[in-house]
Amino acid sequence: MAPRLSRILRNAVDGGDVAAAIQEYEYRYGGPARGGLDLRKSEYRNFAKLYFDLITDFYEYGWSRSFHFAPRTRNESFRASLTRHEHYLAQELQLRPGMVALDLGCGIGGPLREMIRFSGARIVGVSISGYGIDRARKQTDEAGLGHMAEFVECDFMKMDFPDESFDAVFSIETTCCAPDKVGVFGEAFRLLKPGARFGVYEYCLTDLFDPEDANHQRLKADLELGGGLPDIAYPPEVDGALRTVGFELLAASDKAVQDARGIPWYHPLTGRGMSLANFRSSKVGRAVTHGSVWTMERLGVLPSGTLRVSRLLNMAAAAFAESGQLGIFTPMYFVLARKPANC
After folding, report:
1. Beta bridge partners of 101
2. Burial of residue 160, with CB atoms counted within 10 A of its CB: 0-12 exposed, 13-18 middle, 19 or more buried
3. Backbone angles phi, psi at 31, to 5 degrees
4. Distance separating alpha carbons of residues 184 and 187, to the nearest angstrom
């Protein structure tokens, strides 16, 4: 564990700057009560870049190379559930060889690579994090898929691609980081060819969220600061934004709602039914990692500030787990939309 952890943040943020970066992130965008909504929206580029540069290695170490959640069936492995979630999206987008798709907020490219293998389509990934883009290129080349993928460091609110460049566009739990849903969905609409599809897994509050409940408000604030989110929308806001920019909605459903016999998306974070596959993401595993980070920071193996990043992500993990158990939040409100053929 220690050799792998010792690489955390060393390339993402210069060793001497980790403490300054996490301090800026928490103080500037958290505020006294983890609010900071106005700055998180007006300065979203800096907010998002700071966040993803700081947490990318933690996510890869503690979760997987696919930075997203997925419901799981009984006797299905954690990795298999993520893969099935990605395959479902590729099928709904009707990806096939000869098509070129765009991945909004590609992270280190885990889902992108799996969707290339599954569909045979070529995929372009964009991210505001230069560190994430570098990791994605390296891992994609190592997987022998470099000829099928391209990675571009840019802001997905305003991309340089020509109009109608793509046969499909998708986002897996990333447009939730946009300061304006109409803005990011408008870019997707512009870049799609007429008749092409857009698929999105979106973070949303559910009808069970009570804005007058202090615990619900605390969880929402923890999710936003710990998850790099300017704000969390309700499903009707997502649907409305898609319609506003011109999309036709083909399907919309909360994929977190599933058969009672299944395993919920937040299960790996709770420690129940813990296995070696999800130990690192469990409550116990996170505590072990946090202790290792504390030790290595004290010894100077990790730069100052690393422990503070770990603490932020542990706060987020606890909020994801509790909000999932309460049913007030879903990370996978799925919408499939289409750009009209006559556009």
Report:
1. 123, 168
2. exposed
3. 75, 180
4. 5
- Packed helices 306-326 and 44-62: angle between N→C axes, nearest 10 degrees: 80
What residues are paired with 256 via a beta bridge? none
Please write down the HEC assignment for all residues of 278-290.
HCCCCHHHHHHHH
How, if at all, do strands 122-127 and 166-172 pair? unpaired
Rounded to whole angstroms, the Cα distance separating 286 from 246 reads 43
The residues that bridge with 333 in the sheet, in sequence order, are 202, 254
Phi, psi values for residue 53, rounded to 5°? -65, -35
Tell me if the pTM is above 0.90. Answer: no
Q: Where are the alpha helices (DSSP H) in 13-129?
A: 18-30, 37-42, 44-62, 78-92, 110-119
pLDDT digits (tens, 9 = 90+) for 107-141: 899 999 999 999 999 999 999 999 889 999 999 99
- What phi and psi, each to the nearest 5 degrees, are found at residue 61? -70, -45
- Please report the sign of the dihedral spanned by the C-alpha atoms of residue 56, residue 60, residue 66, residue 67: negative
Residue partners of 224: CB distance under 8 A and separation at least 6: 34, 37, 40, 230, 231, 232
pLDDT (tens digit per residue) in 55-110: 777 777 666 677 788 888 888 888 888 999 999 999 999 999 999 999 999 989 99
**C-alpha–C-alpha distance, residues 198 and 110, integer Å:** 19
CA distance 327 to 329: 6
CA pair distance 65, 276, nearest whole angstrom:
16
Which residue stretches of the chain have pLDDT < 70?
Answer: 1-16, 31-37, 61-64, 258-261, 271-305
